[in-house]
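Risk register update: the risk of archive-format incompatibility is retired. Evidence:
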Amino acid sequence: MFTLGLSGDTMLGRKVAERLERDPPAALFAEDLVTVAHEADLLVVNLECCISERGERWPDPAKPFFFRAPPRALDALALLGVGAVTLANNHALDYDVAALLDTLDLLDDAGIACVGAGQDLERARAPAELDVAGTRIAVVGLTDHPEDFAAGPSRPGVAHADLRSEVPEWVAATVGAVDADVVLVTPHWGPNMTAEPVSHVRRAAPAVVAAGATLVAGHSAHVFHGVRTLDRDGAPVPVLYDLGDFIDDYAVDPRLRNDHGLFWLLRLDGARPVRLEAVPIFLDYCYTRLARREEAAWIRRRFRDACAAMGTEATEEDGRLVVTW
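Archived output:
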């Protein structure tokens, strides 16, 4: 049995970065949450920032937020046991090319695999292939925004895929060419602050599954979404439309409650997913812990309802939300 850990937007910049500069990485995460994270044989997160001490802000007068973490952020990722990150998102180039290249080098030096961004188009689109606990797993990262961050043949950037009309051929070709037990496709797709996946995200998921994904785990909304199970050749393929956020300093929407989240553990028997455990978490200001009683009750209600709307039953066991196949 192999356990894949997943968490969504992991933003270690801005005020989180300031806290990292003065406090140890353990000040960002409750000890019991770190213990849960260590249940994973491999933990994959969306790194929603660059890691660097260099760079100038991306020259877009309409861009409101810029996230850059100090090199000490690598210690925070190590504390959690992160083995791979995706940089395919709208913050990888917040401090331009110099900071992105630093991020790639620092992750490589730390032994953390990286997908979704690279020194050129080929490397930005390339999957990471890892052998963990005897399981071969490939991770493919892509983002549907912003287009001006896109890598070129000789230009650093992210793996951009315009999903609004159809899934680009390169995505299907990349996923289909992978030879691994588990193929995780992790897209940064759709707008912020949505309670459910938008239409182009719903359309893209089946195409990614048909190309060969074992699991689709998205992010971008800052709010967790429900789980849908698609079928490929008689095998279940879970689609986690949005993982929600993991740590940040963001303002809290009083209706969507982006401070109420989930940490995800997918148990696989070989290449087959058999059990998803979603652990309720609470994002305090620059600090994440396990959710407490009323917080967890709110998360359970919302997740069950979101899953039911997609034809999926979520139960509860020992405080965790469970989907089985």
